[in-house]
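Entry 14: structure prediction run for Ig-like domain-containing protein. Input pasted below.
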Amino acid sequence: MFSCLLRGRGTVAIQACRSRLRQEDSPPRIVEHPSDLIVSKGEPATLNCKAEGRPAPTVEWYKDGERVETDRDNPRSHRMLLPSGSLFFLRIVHGRRSKPDDGSYVCVARNYLGEAVSHNASLEVA
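Run finished. Output tokens:
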């Protein structure tokens, strides 16, 4: 941005510079989709997701249409959002009455230009 500002002076030069920077921005796109998993109760697991875009998109996960709570929302959560955008389970939780990890997952990448949704991936507990 500084080289752009140095070429001209005044408001017109700044507006032209901002316009060019925005043209280089791009909407998110999913470059690595999650795959179906079958995991034993109590074992760790990872649902992969990688997104590209400019500015770098934020990633959120949804299970059966509901937003997944991760360690960023609750430090005691057994689910972690990795810097890559993948969803890591410290251990798969599965009980007689509660099956909080079993279901269909998608990752959603967003920036100011839009959003991209991954393919569905199922996580089944063996």
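Notes: Confidence is low (pLDDT under 50) at residues 1-7. Will compare against the previous run tomorrow.
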